[in-house]
Amino acid sequence: MSLTSYAVPVPRIPVGQTFDAAINWLRVNFQAVFDFIGLIIETCVDTLFALFSAPSATQFTLAAAAVTAGGLLARKRYVPTLIAVAVWAGFYVAEVSAGLAAGVITALPAPLFLWAMNLFGAEYVYPPLVLALLLLVALVAISFTATRERRQWVLAGVSAGVLLLILALHFIVGVQLSLIVAALLATIALVVAGWRVALFSILGFLLIISMESWENAMSSLALILVATLVAVAISLPIGVLAAQSRHVSNAAKPVLDFMQTLPAFVYLLPAIAFFSIGIVPGVIATVIFAMPPGVRLTELGIRQVDKELVEAGEAFGAPDWQILRRIQLPLALATIMAGINQIIMLSLSMVVIAGMVGAGGLGNDVYTGIAQGDVPVGFEGGIAVVILAIFLDRLTGAVTRFSPAARAQRASA
Amino acid sequence: MPAVRADKLYKIFGRRPGRAVELLADGRHRDEIKSLNVTAAVIDVSFEVQPGEIFVVMGLSGSGKSTLIRMLNGLLPPTAGSVEIEGTDITKLGKSGLRRLRSEKVSMVFQHFALFPHRTVLDNAAYGLEVRGVARSEREAKAREALALVGLDGWELKVPGQLSGGMQQRVGLARALAADTDIILMDEAFSALDPLIRRDMQSQLLELQESLGKTIIFITHDLNEAMRLGDRICVLRDGRVAQIGTAEEILNDPANDYVAQFVEDVDRTRVLTASSVMEAPIPVVDPGQGPRAALRTMRENQTPWAFVVRRNRRLVGAVGETAIGEAVRDNAKEIDGIVETGVERVHPDTPVADMFGQAAESSYPLAVVDDQERLVGVIPRVTLLAALASSVGDNGEAEPAAEASGDAAESAPGTEAAADGETADEGPQSAAQTESDRGDDAPATEGSRQ
Ligand SMILES: Nc1ncnc2c1ncn2[C@@H]1O[C@H](COP(=O)(O)OP(=O)(O)O)[C@@H](O)[C@H]1O
Ligand SMILES: [Mg+2]
Questions:
Q1: b vs e for A381-399, b when ≥16 Cβ sit within 10 Å of the residue's Cβ?
Q2: Ligand 1, atom 20: closest residue by C-alpha
Q3: What's the pLDDT tens digit per position in B391-410?
Q4: Which of B13, B31, B220 to mutate to test the pocket of ligand 1 (most atoms within 8 A of CB)?
Q5: Which residues in chain B are contacts of A313 at CB distance < 8 A?
Q6: How many CB atoms are located within 10 Å of the residue B16 CB?
Q7: Rounded to whole angstroms, what are the CA distances from A227 to A256, A290, B102, B319?
Q8: What is the C-alpha separation between A287 and B373, in angstroms, rounded?
Q9: Cβ of B102 and A412 within 8 Å?
Q10: Count of other CB atoms within 10 angstroms of residue B374
Q11: Measured CA distances, A189 to A361, A395, A398, A410, B38 (Å)
Q12: Chain A partners of B98 at a C-beta cutoff of 8 Å?
């Protein structure tokens, strides 16, 4: 007598292989698309990184111009501001493609520039810097002529003054850029979130600089910001759609659950397959991992808006997009900002994993620490991540204060 | 052309409403079609509202009022039947047509105000015009006007959270007024307010309506409010119309037991006005007459007083028996010098409830004078008490105090009568208090006294 075996034959379903095949198919057919996406992301991260870690005089000048222009736009002086920016953009493009500005500059009498070249110890006049300076001058002039508002005058004056101070400090006195950028970031914290956060930021950034992690921290910051931007750009519209339609909401829910529960490492497989290693797969994996709360909280925020208010909009004949734009989004802003805050925090937690695929930055420090048993390097990387996290968290948490809804709430309290 | 016309309107919530409409049209009650898994909110409702009218829809909670009003501006599409606004059948309009209708012809005031908390009072009031694309300066000017109309000038730059409930609803009203539509829908607009503020708002609404001539469709679950505001009232019961008529028709001639039960609780002194209880203004004398002639007129009418009016019927005052007697003794030529000019006056629209205090203070009957100061009637104290008696009595059949003819002797000045006036004052108050224990959903006869 032989024992009968009751083992039921379970067929092997080639889940993994199918997935792999799908990836390969996509790669073969859409490689160009992925390359394009990768290129854009990489350019963005690189630019941001350069801006944070080693900003040029031109970038500083443009930042000052942007602050001034922002003030003008907030005060509804659209026409002169946009004309100035458009003229600058035109010259800039002409310069980059045809060297136009350089031609003009060489045609001008040399003594005009010599003193500045001597002062900054430059070998030649860098045309984009000249253009940027002219733009700033134009915007400051507009601020003083087209507005009668004190605050705009102060804003224009301060941004020009701070720029001159920075240029002098760095190019003449020789202070490191890292200190200057740290001070600027702390200033942003001061304006947005108050002096406690500013104090914390400056101390934290000094610690990072002293741990010699500044470059890596700025690299991670650039990666996080780009990933956050992409994640917000994708999750916000999906959240809005999900709030409007039950079908979208029902379809999105399981996908979001899947994205959040799948171990983060698993994203890396297709991300590497599509974008090879480097910063781009790191950004992609971060976006996928960090996006779900953005969608969920956007949907929640919009659904939470009082039904009667939406009905009031309808009752006065407002079209749907206007109700969304003027009633639902402003009132959901606090919740949406909480979602963006979550996105940033989750991005930070992905830093180490992104480091594993060669995205560099602080993640790389931590990863090296783990791989080589180098505790000091790993720990310092971790501390730097925490400092960045707190800085970004407080900053995004405080941004909501400036929304009309929050202002109204404070007024009525 | 009526401003609003509803014709055989039905609204059924649920998956397959067609069959339900057929059964309901056959006269089934909405509970009988529960098995179809539908909710019949509005059943076979037809009415017409004339331009400039205040049309009140009244019913208990769940009787379909909100559903009905939302079909009038197309927020809800009817299951069957049609709605005409100024002659246009809006059930045939597309999405953009409906939007235009709402922004140009019909605006709305909400129960919980539905003000935008993140906008200033001014921006809230200007919302309707903003949607319509009116330039900022123009819409703000109109919004300021509307806010001034509701008595909120000076509050433009506050946000709604800084205002009290009553003021918030004024903003809601201003938002509807600024939109400059001929028709305003008000869904339980005053139900969330305290009784006192509510009465203020009702008076203000009546004043505004008089000067602006808007067509108003007003929804309430409060019978007193309905009676006070409505030119005509539509009583809804379980989605169907129970009765449509003026306040007095509904009060004196209820169409069925349901309406009769409903109006049983109403505080008649609030509904009945001076003009509905007053009596013919006799006797009257001319200020140029001699005291003997005046005395004769009073004797003929068996009253101890007479009102003194000029030829154009403008009221000068009143004279009493004692003063006349003395004048006769003194051989005075004219009564002009002895006329007491401080008699208490009321307007024909003053509710009976508001007259007790005045009646108690005066030794003469109340003089009912119109806007031109002309004497149109008198109300002796007994008449007032009779009106009150029929409102406290348990059936509403007593004709409002008409037969309580002004018998002179009884309205003589005296402390006793004044004391009566006081007790009369207490009556409806305690009634109102027991009433208010019933909670929100009952057709509460809200506290009527201030
Ligand atoms: N969107 C809806 N879906 C299903 N049933 C509804 C809906 N809106 C209202 N109803 C039902 O219709 C009936 C009438 O409601 P409503 O018009 O709000 O009454 P009222 O305003 O008189 O209190 C109620 O039984 C309510 O439950
Ligand atoms: Mg309702």
A1: bbbbbebbbebbbbbbebb
A2: B62
A3: 554 443 333 433 333 333 33
A4: B13
A5: 131
A6: 10
A7: 17, 8, 44, 93
A8: 80
A9: no
A10: 15
A11: 23, 6, 9, 21, 57
A12: 317
Ligand 1 atom index nearest CA of B13: 4
Do residue A315 and residue B102 have CB atoms under 8 angstroms apart?
Answer: yes
pLDDT score recorded for residue B418: 38
- Whether B161 sits inside 8 A of A317 (CB atoms) is no
Question: Which residues, at least 6 apart from B268, have a Cβ–Cβ distance to it below 8 Å?
Answer: B251, B352, B387, B388, B390, B391, B396, B400
CA-wise closest residue to B54 among B198, B266, B213, B178 = B213
Residue B433 has pLDDT above 70, yes or no: no
Nearest CA to ligand 1 atom 27: B62
pLDDT at residue A123, as a whole number = 65
How many Cα atoms sit within 13 Å of A58 on the Cβ side? Answer: 11
Q: Do A404 and B108 touch (CB under 8 A)?
A: no
- Contact yes or no for B233/B246 (Cβ under 8 A): yes
Buried b / exposed e along B301-328 (16+ C-beta atoms within 10 A):
eebbbbbbbeeeeebbbbbbbebbeebe
CB contact under 8 A, B158 and A403: no
- Please report, in angstroms and rounded to a whole number, the separation of the first and last CA atoms in chain B: 40
Helix (H) or strand (E) holding B329: helix B321-329
pLDDT at A238: 96
- Closest residue by Cα to residue B406 from B269, B286, B270, B281: B281
- Sheet of strand B375-379: strand arrangement: B345-346, B366-369, B375-379
| 3-class secondary structure per residue, B225-285 | HHHHHCCEEEEEECCEEEEEECHHHHHHCCCCHHHHHHHHCCCHHHHCEHHHHCECCCCEE
ipTM over 0.90: no
B64 lines ligand 1 (CB under 6 A): yes
> Residues whose CB is under 5 A from ligand 2 (ion)?
B 66
Q: Which atom of ligand 1 is nearest to the CA of B239?
A: 14
Decide whether any atom of ligand 1 lies within 6 Å of the B58 Cβ: no
Answer yes or no: is the C-beta of B111 below 6 A from any ligand 1 atom: no
Residue B338 to residue B291: CA distance in whole angstroms: 10
Ligand 1 pocket member B65 (CB < 6 A): yes
Burial A174-193 (b: 16+ CB within 10 A, else e): eeebbbbbbbbbbeebbebb
